[in-house]
Design brief:
163 residues; alpha+beta; six-stranded antiparallel sheet
Length: 163
């Protein structure tokens, strides 16, 4: 299964006290091109202190990738356990969230906590998926390249917010 449409670009949107935030239109377009539903899947990112997000159709591709990884590692005595652990993280620790016609979602409290999302959400296209960051966390994360931090600074300045 190949993905013809990839997530790219960046945006900064406000998050209200109830966790409502609008998914940027350029991301919604990709979701809707990939499938029929107005839904995103949220998960804690594997490496970064942010959320990973994707359309429901991507879940099948993710499962196939995990299956192929198991096939490569079958000779390892820990392979089956690691496969089960990866599956739990990839599928049990996710939440499907619908969005309305204006692209607004309500971030589930658990996901909001896992992604450390406060009053702002920085959306970053990452190819097959997109990420949702707390911009303050993004700017202080030592694993984020400085060029990427410039994007976050620009998005904050664009909104009149210098952090």
């Amino acid at each position: 299964m190949a993905l013809d449409h990839l997530f790219q670009g960046s945006a900064l949107n406000a998050v209200d006290a109830k966790g409502r935030v609008s998914i940027p239109a350029f991301l919604r377009t990709v979701i809707e091109r990939r499938g029929e539903t107005r839904t995103i899947v949220l998960a804690k990112h594997e490496s970064f202190p942010c959320l990973s997000a994707y359309d429901p159709a991507y879940a099948a591709l993710k499962h196939s990738k995990l299956e192929r990884l198991l096939e490569k590692e079958e000779t390892s005595p820990q392979a089956q356990l690691e496969y089960q652990q990866r599956n739990l993280m990839a599928f049990a620790a996710t939440e499907e969230v619908p969005y309305d016609s204006s692209g607004r979602i309500v971030l589930p409290p658990m996901m909001r906590r896992k992604g450390q999302i406060d009053d702002l959400a920085l959306f970053l296209g990452a190819g097959e998926t997109f990420q949702i960051w707390n911009p303050g966390e993004f700017l202080t994360d030592p694993n984020v390249p400085d060029d990427m931090k410039d994007i976050a600074r620009f998005r904050l300045e664009e909104k009149g917010l210098g952090r």
